[in-house]
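Fig. S4 source data, part A: sequence.
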Amino acid sequence: MLLKGLNKLTLLDFPEKIACILFTGGCDFRCPFCQNAALVTEFDDGYVDPEEFFAFLRGRKGKLDGVVLTGGEPLLQPDIVGFVKRIKDEGYAVKLDTNGYHPDRLKELFEGGLLDYVAMDIKNSPEKYALTAGREGLDFSKIAASRDLIMNSGVDYEFRTTVVKEFHTAEDFDAIGAFVKGAGKHYLQRFRDEGGNIAAGLHAPSDKELSHYAEILSKYVENVLIR
């Protein structure tokens, strides 16, 4: 496992859980608005030793409930399934943040009963997915396969879209809604430019635009929330 960082406490990232956040290195997308550019592009040595991480977990029993695996893209890690199993064997719940581009590994985790919550990014409408993900030749069928796995898993989940003025329109959210129709929860996250993005010159939508996009999604999704 290529582990890039550990946030030892979060009360926000894992619903109803006190958790830590573990950041993996590397991603197969290059979303221009990504706020974790260093995690996406660095495939060199990790900064967190896996055995030290498990020692940390053993020392936090009774104080932490869960572990959030994020990145980068955790499912890029070839040993992710065994790693998650070790976390579960320590008695912790696991939340996975994923871009949805590795349905085979996602399926393996579901079949092993290793996930307690999944958050999948929905980058944009199918027509603009490759552009928004920064990946030419993107295989959208993988995104659709992950959507289906998540919605039929019986595991609690959310879809989420980071909204960027230069990339998203009302028409896109109508198409996004059709793609995730029947989902229980979809978050709209306002883009933030904090200086660490892959591309410069991007902007957040206005409050009015965000509210309008949420209204459009509400035709398809039971609960649409703005972060």
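Fig. S4 source data, part B ends here. Residues 140-151 form the longest helix (12 residues).
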